[in-house]
Design goal:
Helix content is 29%, strand content 25%. By secondary structure, the chain is of the alpha/beta class. It starts with a strand and ends in a 9-residue tail after the last strand.
Length: 279
């Protein structure tokens, strides 16, 4: 079987690359640098904003790509190459719908996240994902550049909220995705991690056969299907197995790191038979 040379590896963060304590695995920075010496670049692809991702990778920000807000913004080696802008009227409408449903809205501005002051008691959990949070009296009067609107659901009922409310309200006009048990993300139509990965690949003259990606849930699905070597984590959403080609060990077993090291050991050359199929 012909082998493909991997040129770009993209990974989701939570429940994918990060360990069970939400930390980067030991040796990650050195591994990314070693891959770069083989002509293989790394991209962090997350629902988190760019400013949070930059804080997570202080030693690598000029050596890697950052895909923030599920593809709403892309930064390549410190340079912005794409930003989606959500119309003000649209995210104000979403803020009204979120309020009526009794859920917590987070407007993902390009420079800060915005949350209504009445939800400041959730500052600790929100701060894990947004290193800049501005508390305001009313989201419906804001006029700031933003690329995503997300709904935080403390009860862990994101799939139910998507099925009963947000999928019907916004699914035809926007990209709407369940982003874990506590989150539903809404982006402009056509914005997702898969589109961002394709854009990065084109900028590097890479095809699908040169792309590898890792993820665990529905907002990763397009990215995992864009890359020929798309890996669902063993701890990921079971419903995605039929759509994804390969299965990686779980995040608590450093599944991403283990496969990245395998790629490095093989000089970047891989074939489908090297990996475990997802189905």
């Amino acid at each position: 079987m012909d082998r493909d040379h991997i040129g770009l590896i993209a990974s989701d963060m939570d429940y994918t690359l990060l360990d069970e304590n939400g930390q980067l695995p030991e040796g990650f920075t050195e591994l990314v640098r070693a891959l770069k010496e083989e002509g293989i670049y790394f991209a962090a692809a997350s629902g988190r904003p760019l400013y949070t991702l930059e804080a997570m990778f202080p030693d690598l920000r000029d050596r890697m790509a950052l895909i923030g807000d599920n593809g709403g913004a892309i930064r390549w080696r410190g340079r912005d190459i794409y930003q989606s802008r959500m119309p003000t009227a649209d995210y104000r409408e979403m803020a009204i719908a979120t309020r009526e449903a009794g859920d917590i809205g987070v407007l993902c501005g390009l420079e800060s996240a915005y949350v209504e002051r009445q939800y400041q008691s959730y500052a600790r959990v929100l701060g894990q994902f947004y290193t800049r949070v501005t508390y305001v009296d009313d989201l419906t009067v804001l006029d700031v550049p933003a690329d995503k609107y997300t709904i935080y659901l403390p009860r862990g009922n994101s799939q139910e909220a998507y099925d009963k409310i947000y999928g019907d309200l916004y699914g035809e006009r926007f990209s709407v995705a369940v982003a874990g048990a506590n989150w539903v993300d809404i982006m402009n139509r056509g914005v997702d991690k898969g589109a961002a990965l394709r854009a990065l690949g084109r900028s590097l003259n890479l095809t699908s056969a040169n792309l590898m990606a890792f993820g665990d849930t529905y907002n990763d699905a397009e990215m995992l299907c864009t890359a020929k070597y798309g890996f669902l984590m063993a701890n990921g959403s079971q419903d995605l197995r039929a759509r994804v080609s390969f299965l990686a060990p779980p995040h608590w077993d450093q599944g991403v790191i283990r496969i990245m090291r395998q790629v490095l050991d093989q000089g970047g050359w891989v074939s489908p038979t090297d990996f475990n199929p997802a189905h």
